[in-house]
Amino acid sequence: MKPIEKLILTVYAVIVVAIYIAGILAFEMYTSRDSAPVFWSCLFLIFPVSIYYCVRMTNVQGKIWYGYAGNFIISYAVLIFITYFSLMKVDLLVSYLLRPSTTVTIPIISVKKSYVKKSFDHTKVTVFYGSRNIEFETSRSNFFLLEHKKQINSNIGVSYAGNYYITNFEHSSAEMWAAKEAYLKNWWSRNWWIWAFFALFILSVVILAKYFPNVGRKVRKKPFSLARAAVIWLVIMAGIFVIAIAGIYLYGLYHLINKN
Hints:
By secondary structure, the protein is α+β, with helices and mostly antiparallel strands.
C-alpha cells in the first residue's frame, strides 16, 4: 500500500469515527428517514474510488476477471454503506448547529426494543409530535430510562433532510446511570459466554506458553501483503474506537462527580 493510500484511508476512517462519536455526544434520539439525493450522491462519489480500489487490489492479487468484479462489488457496497450513513449523521449535526430547535413536552406512545438477528440492536421510541406519531431511534440503555415514562421535556429539531432529532431530554443523573447499569446487567445476562470464551482463550495461551513453549515456533514467515496491512489497520482503528468510547463514558462520570 502506497503512503498516499494509507494517508487517505486513515483520514477517511478518522472522519467516519469522529462523525459517529459526535452523533453520540450530540443526540439522544433521531429518526432515520432515507434521503434519495444523499444516496445518489454517494453512488456517484464512491464509483471512481471503487474502480481505483478494484484495479489496485486485483493487480496485486493477480489479474483475474472475477477478481475485478469481486473487489469492485465488495468495495462499492461497503463504501456506500459507510459513507451514506455518515453523511446522514452529518446532516443531523449541521442542522443541530445551524437550525433552531424547540423545547417542548412530548407524550411517549411506546418504547420498544429493536432486534437484529435476535440481538438487541437499539431502542424504538414512538412519540406524538406535530399532530402525528413519530418513531425515533435511541440507545439500548435509554430503553431502561424511558420504558416507564409517559412524557419527556426535550429539545427537538428537524434536519435539512427531513429527519427529527432530540438533543436532550429532562432526566436526572441518577436515572441515567441506573439505566446504564440495568442495560449492562441485561447485556451480561445475554452475552456472558463471550467473556467465558475470552477467559478460556487466555488460559489456553498461558498453558501453551508454560508447558509447550516450542509449539508454533517454527512457522514460515508470510510476506507482508496488502490484505494483511488492511487487517492491521482495521485492528488499530477498532482500538482507537474502543478508547474513544471509553473516554466518552469516563468524561460523563467525571462530569457527574463534579456536578454532585
